[in-house]
Amino acid sequence: MIVDFNNLPDDSRLWIYQSNRDFSNQEQDEIRNLTESFLINWQSHNQELEVSYEIKYNRFLILAVNESFNSPGGCSIDLSLRFINDLSKKINIDLLDRMNVNYKDKQDIKCVKVNELKELLNNKSINEETIIFNNLVKTKIDYMNNWESNLKNSWLSQFIK
Q1: Which of 31, 47, 81, 130 has a CB 3.0–4.6 Å from the CB of 126, allowing a cystine?
Q2: Any idea where the domains of the chain sit in the sequence?
């Protein structure tokens, strides 16, 4: 059952999938349609899940599950990954590349490979205050409070040294 994202409890589990570029309007429509079709039928051990999603900044797809309603099992999580993989192929954007790092550059969001961060720091294109997106957050409250974080307070801080 799809619910409004804001109505999910703070401890709801979530997964963040990122693009290396903004989604076009047409891609966003397709992402919404395909995601809703998937979520309506997403179950765990033949039990309905309470789920939601967001498209954030035209670049991120966030899936969320209220685990206190019904918890997704390993097979249902695998199914969601298969959905994301299929979606990536359909819209021709890799949403599973964990080597991408998105960050804010003034009003824009830019993407680089994680191994390019050191060079950006050295040439002062970014600094320890640069806002990055920590896609490793696991819960809705963590997403709300820690997803957008400055580089020095993220797992990427190891690149500052």
Answers
A1: 130
A2: 5-91, 100-159
